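> call design_seq(struct)
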């Protein structure tokens, strides 16, 4: 079982689809897969967050298992202070519903750290993670998991150092918007970490059960 924790294109049973807030509000979400939904920082000035929050609270399907992706982006989207306000409101929503938070961040780890410290009772998954060793050490103090995707194809010294510093018990893998097969990413991580793919897959499954409090048997 190779879990894909964050995808927009892979619709296998073991893939957690990410649904943008605007699509969720339009009723465009899976009925047979697990999914997460959140107000992406690029669109925080385009979507009514109050409407989104109320819709998520009223949603009754057990298929919804997390809030996100949401977060901060210094390269795209409205001003950062507004992004922070919208992100923090979604953190309150995640706490109320007891959901983990899937985090989008671009050049904003230093901005997110104080918010994570403030809301340190929540569980976070940094998707498409590309932080350095120092940033990773700061995040590992908190209940943060790290999801790796297509960037693994561009392995460099920084990436290897980061991967070496993160235990597999805090890892996920994802395809995001790529056409990669998730099995390829498991092989890459297993090679870098010098472990068997089966051990990595079993550990990621255990991470999934711990973070999302779900089993894939519930979808049968």
């Amino acid at each position: 079982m190779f879990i894909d924790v964050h995808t927009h294109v892979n619709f296998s049973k073991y893939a957690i689809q990410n649904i943008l807030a605007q699509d969720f509000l339009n009723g465009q979400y899976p009925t047979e897969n697990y999914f997460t939904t959140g107000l992406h920082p690029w669109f925080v000035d385009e979507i009514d967050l109050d409407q989104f929050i109320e819709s998520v609270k009223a949603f009754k399907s057990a298929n919804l298992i997390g809030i996100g992706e949401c977060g901060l982006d210094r390269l795209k989207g409205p001003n950062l202070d507004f992004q922070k306000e919208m992100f923090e409101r979604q953190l309150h929503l995640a706490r109320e519903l007891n959901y983990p938070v899937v985090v989008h961040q671009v050049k904003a780890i230093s901005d997110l750290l104080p918010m994570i410290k403030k809301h340190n009772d929540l569980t976070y998954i940094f998707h498409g993670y590309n932080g350095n060793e120092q940033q990773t050490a700061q995040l590992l103090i908190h209940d943060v998991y790290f999801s790796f995707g297509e960037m693994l194809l561009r392995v460099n010294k920084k990436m290897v150092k980061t991967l070496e510093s993160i235990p597999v018990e805090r890892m996920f893998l994802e395809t995001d918007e790529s056409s990669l097969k998730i099995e390829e990413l498991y092989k890459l991580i297993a090679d870098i970490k010098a472990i068997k793919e089966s051990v990595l897959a079993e550990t990621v499954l255990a991470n999934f059960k711990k973070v999302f409090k779900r089993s894939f048997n519930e979808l049968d």
